[in-house]
Write a structure and sequence with these properties.
With 258 residues, the chain is an alpha/beta fold. Helix content is 38%, strand content 22%. The protein binds adenosine-5'-diphosphate and N-acetyl-L-glutamyl 5-phosphate (X2W).
């Protein structure tokens, strides 16, 4: 089976023009089929605040009312997605921008209201791999933003870490998938303020203790859950760390195994 690399980049890379530029230059050189998934939560928060739209997050998830949905559509599917695609084209990587609505690639359902109403937030129901397979086999590189649709004309906000893991799981039927979560730290750290304290291996048996001891908290909670979900569903390799882990073999990072 051919190897497919799915790489997710988070807010801190996207917010730093120089870092994003350097990352995209390196990403363009990766030889195997690849998909880029980007977040952009921090930029959406900044814009919402400038527009005096209240920002509400619960357990790292954005409560997405109609006004917020308009903002994130402009930020994720517009500004960030199109800038990334244009920069990749400048590096001779033939990229094509996607939300889950494009090519009907990711269908989700509006999260049911329980004690919390997340508004227009979508939980992934189905990934249609056919259009992606076609593009990947023809040397095109899909670039996904954090938006899906419900097949009734409604766009929905879906966490970018989840988009990456769901794409990875579905495409594992066709490819040997490696999933990389890139962010500003060297990996999952024993001490979040010490970049040398990387936990090199995490298994389902060690994870609960890390949560109970508050070593893993906030944004790392959904990320690690997505990692476990992926390794439990045929994804061959899942890593968290700086994007250097993709290009420099000696760079320390965290690997999540079954
Ligand atoms: N043990 C840990 N190691 C590293 N980061 C952690 C840990 N626990 C919590 N975090 C927090 O998780 C954040 C990453 O989550 P998030 O901001 O959602 O990532 P992204 O940039 O990919 O969107 C880090 O910036 C850090 O503050
Ligand atoms: C439902 C939900 O919370 N969606 C996220 C999507 C963006 C994202 O995941 O961005 P980062 O990876 O940069 O955090 C949000 O709106 O913040």
């Amino acid at each position: 089976m051919e190897t497919l690399k799915i790489i997710k980049i988070g807010g801190n890379i996207i917010n730093d023009d120089t870092e994003l530029h350097l990352f995209l230059k390196d990403f363009a050189t990766l030889k195997s089929p690849k998909i880029l998934v980007h977040g952009g939560g921090k930029l959406a928060t900044k814009l919402a605040q400038q527009m005096q739209v209240e920002v509400k997050m619960v357990d790292g998830r954005r409560i997405t009312d109609a006004e917020t949905l308009d903002i994130i559509t402009m930020v994720y599917a517009g500004k960030i997605n199109k800038s990334i695609v244009a920069q990749l084209q400048a590096h001779q990587c033939n990229a094509i921008g996607f939300s889950g609505a494009d090519g009907n690639t990711i269908v989700s359902q509006k999260r049911p209201v329980t004690t919390i109403d997340y508004g227009f937030a979508g939980d992934v129901k189905q990934v249609n791999t056919k259009p992606l397979e076609l593009l990947l086999k023809n040397n095109l590189t899909p670039v996904f933003c954090a938006m899906t649709h419900d097949q009734n004309g409604q766009l929905l906000n879906t966490n970018a870490d989840t988009i990456a893991s769901e794409l990875a799981i579905s495409l594992s039927e066709i490819f040997n998938v490696e999933l990389y979560y890139c962010f500003e730290k060297n990996g999952v750290l024993n001490d979040v303020n010490n970049d040398d304290s990387v936990i090199e291996l995490i298994t389902p048996d060690t994870i609960q203790q890390l949560i109970d001891d508050h070593i893993i908290f906030e944004g790392m909670l959904p990320k690690i859950k997505n990692c476990l979900h992926a390794v439990s569903n045929r994804v061959s390799k899942v890593c968290i760390g700086k994007s250097d882990m993709l290009f420099n073999k000696n760079n320390k990072h965290t690997t999540i195994t079954r």
